[in-house]
Amino acid sequence: MLDRSETDRDVIVAEIERLQGVFGANRSFKSYSERALDAAKALSGSVGLSEPSFQRDGYELPLGLRIALGRFVANQQPIPADWLLSWVMSDPQLYVRTPATRDLTLFREVFALRWERAKPGGVTFSDAQVARFPKLKGAYRAASNTFNVTLAIGDSLPDVSGARQVINKAHKVALECCEELDAYSRLIGRRPDLKGSIAAGSLAPSDSRAACIARDTLAGLSV
User: Fold this and answer.
1) Are 116 and 82 in contact (CB under 8 A)?
2) What is the pLDDT of residue 219?
3) What is the rounded CA–CA span in Å between residue 11 and residue 40?
4) Measured in whole angstroms, how far is the alpha carbon of residue 108 from the centre of its chain?
5) Average pLDDT, the chain
6) CA–centroid distance for 215 within its chain
7) From the centroid of its chain, how far is CA 37?
8) If DSSP codes are grouped into helix, strand and coil, which group holds residue 114?
9) CA 63 to chain centre
10) 8-state DSSP, 136
């Protein structure tokens, strides 16, 4: 982190990723290791997270998520529904109920449908709005509070994490999805063996019911 040694960085990143395969179930290790990897990617000029994450990590938005969001906004692209949901579920100020995590695949599908209904075409920002966003700054805080490093993000990306109007709207949609999936979630919570069944699928929203049953039926056949 301090010497900016690319050779050392690549070796250490590879070791962290190996250790994640061994100790990834430990929430504390997973959290600290993900922060280290995010910091390493930021230093190397990587874009950020390649896939959205739906797990909360500590008391701030993950740096990789903030970089990814900044990329969409800087490129004048609508923020995809999955990334908005990642923002909602990673934001330490927000919460979602159990239906969001009990069948995350279905929840993502329903959220995407409801978000498109609420915001056709997705969320974009005007040049004037982007200009008002602060520039993204990164900091790496290790498990030891004696080691803190300010990260220089390669290009000047906007930090959209303060766009509360957008994220609050997405949060409201996520909570409405939780309500829609409440009966389905309660059933598979009591009877996990019914997941993918017609009985459980009948409790899913009508516009995702068939896909829910078909997806889980195919998964069962592949096993």
Assistant:
1) no
2) 47
3) 11
4) 11
5) 84
6) 22
7) 16
8) helix
9) 11
10) P
Task: Let me know: does 114 contact 173? Beta carbons within 8 Å.
Answer: yes
Question: Which residue in this structure is represented by tokens 């409790």?
Answer: 203
| Band of residue 186 on the pLDDT scale cut at 50, 70, 90 | very high
Kindly state the average pLDDT of the residues 70-75: 90
Q: 175 and 97 in contact (C-beta within 8 Å)?
A: yes
Query: Are 188 and 195 spatial neighbours (Cβ–Cβ below 8 Å)?
Result: yes
Q: Percent of the chain at pLDDT above 90?
A: 37
pLDDT above 70: residue 157: yes
Residue type at 94 in one-letter notation: L
Q: Which residue has the tokens 């695949």?
A: 105
* One-letter amino acid of 64: G
With both helix axes pointing from N to C terminus, report the angle between 63-74 and 27-44 in degrees, rounded to the nearest 10: 40
Angle among Cα 90, 28, 71 to the nearest 5 degrees reads 35
Tokens of 42: 């930021």
Rounded CA-CA distance 2/195 in Å is: 49
Q: Is the pLDDT of residue 147 over 90?
A: no
Among the residues of the chain, which ranges form H helices?
6-23, 27-44, 63-74, 81-90, 99-102, 104-118, 127-132, 164-180, 182-190, 198-201, 206-222
pLDDT, tens only, 205-223: 888 776 666 665 544 443 3
